[in-house]
Amino acid sequence: MSTLVFRLKYVPDEEADEIRQLLAENDIAFYETSAGRWQISMAGLWVKDKEQAIKARELIREDQIARAQTMRPISFGQWILGYLQHARQNPAEAFFTLIAVLLILSVSILPFTLWI
After folding, report:
1. Residue 113 pLDDT exceeds 90
2. Domain ranges (residues) in the chain
3. DSSP states of 6-34 as a string?
4. What angle do CA 45, 50, 53 make, to 5 degrees?
5. Which residue ranges does UniProt annotate as crossing the membrane (predicted)?
6. Which end of the chain lies in a sparser environment, N or C, as judged by fewer CB atoms within 10 Å?
7. Mind listing the pLDDT tens digit for each residue in 44-56?
8. Phi, psi (5° rounding) for residue 30?
């Protein structure tokens, strides 16, 4: 049975390419699945062999630790810019997320605004 070793959702292309290259350099046979047209499937890198999956996860963990050490925190402006780019790429998801946030806020605040 195949083992998921790396999820690709919300992963930048350059990071995904580096993980693919890391697996290929270490002779780990893997295959990739996409999220599909409606973005409901599991996008990821999978390995069929259990021993190779363990080795792949260890290599990916080491890579992620090294990547985290070189990262720096983003500013609020960068966060807003990233959200706007995500909203432009996924307008339906951004719209429904905004509607859900507004609905939850209105339900949370409404009891305090009604003074009868």
Report:
1. no
2. 3-70, 76-114
3. EE-TT--HHHHHHHHHHHHHTT---EEE-
4. 35
5. 94-115
6. C
7. 999 999 999 999 9
8. -140, 165
